[in-house]
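Troubleshooting log. The previous structure file for this entry was overwritten by mistake, so regenerating from the original sequence record. Sequence copied from the archived sheet and checked twice against the printout by T.R.
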Amino acid sequence: MPRPRKWRRVCCLPESERFGPLDGAQSSEPVINMTVDEYETIRLIDLEGLTQEECAMRMSIARTTVQGIYNDARIKLAESLVNGRVLWINGGQYRLCAGDEIPCCERSCHRHGRRDLE
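Regenerated output below.
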């Protein structure tokens, strides 16, 4: 029996959950679904400039797990940008940081309460 998946800690939810082409053309391609934990790795590594190891500490998961999540997220992001497909950010196994955990991102944790979603 496989080991249960570990909850990934996320400091904040995205301001917008849906991104896509502005030209109004409706693509027959299905939307690309990015999970909230994939979004968080992009935010921490690419926007905040953290290493994968620092990201793993913030999310309370292994560095190798971060590497896999990050690679999947970048593929989805590239596919959305290059092929003009809608990117939808939702779902995943995560919990929002309550701001009282170490390490904590401090800036955004305190805006949100704890929320567990599947």
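Confidence is low (pLDDT under 50) at residues 108-118. Archived copy saved in two places this time.
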